[in-house]
Amino acid sequence: MTPQLRIYLEIYKRISNLGYDVYDYLPNSEASYPFIHIGEMQNPDRYTKTSVFGEVYQTINIYHHYKNMGDLMNMSGEVKEILRGLQIPNMKLILNDIDEQILNDSTTSEVLKRSLIDVHYTFY
Description:
The protein is an alpha+beta fold. The chain has helices at about 5-15, 70-85; strands spanning about 20-25, 35-40, 45, 50-65, 95-105, 110-124. Strands 1, 2, 3, 4, 5 and 6 form a 6-stranded mixed β-sheet that branches.
């Protein structure tokens, strides 16, 4: 299993344990809010003679009703806490940064808020 996949699966597992609906795809319009979408990943890596090291950029989206801004912020705080404490057995994982944007989302007929979280790790 690649290091990037191990990181992705651990993020997915830990966020799923929060008790919210979590998807690795954008669900259809019948999904209920709030939900968390484990989104895009970028994986630049480098190889040496004896190992692989690289970086992982992971995007996580949280969607909620516009009027539930407090709940959205609490959910994003829980997710960021998981991301800050993430450890993978037999892997050195360094958190470089977490960036969050709170956006208005107009992709549906409902007025939504979206927390867009980008996390950047280095591994070796």
